[in-house]
Specification:
One of its GO terms (cellular component) is cytosol. InterPro entries: MbtH-like_dom, MbtH-like_sf, MLP_fam. This is MbtH protein. It holds the Pfam family MbtH. This protein has 74 residues and is an alpha+beta fold. 31% of the residues lie in helices and 28% in strands. It contains two helices and three strands. A three-stranded antiparallel sheet has the order 2-1-3, with helices on one face. β1 and β2 form a beta hairpin. The longest helix has 12 residues.
């Protein structure tokens, strides 16, 4: 039985980001999906997760942050 490649503690990963500013831990051997770009790695799982923790401070999607800031100025 094949294990989940997204949860392999010994796997090599990259960190992806999309236009909404959302991050994803992605197995290095898989193609990067459309709309996402590599911002870190390839590295081990722990270092990639550390990167995400140190860079993703606001999990609200960019589009909601923009609309929220417009609403607060009204």
């Amino acid at each position: 039985m094949m294990s989940n490649p997204f949860e392999n503690p010994d796997g090599i990963y990259v960190v992806l980001i999309n236009e909404e500013g959302q991050y994803s831990l992605w197995p290095d051997f898989l193609d990067i999906p459309s709309g996402w770009e590599n911002v870190y790695g390839a590295d081990n799982r722990e270092k990639c997760l550390d990167y995400i923790k140190s860079h993703w401070h606001n999990q609200m999607p960019n589009s909601l942050r923009v609309s929220e800031s417009i609403g607060s100025r009204a």
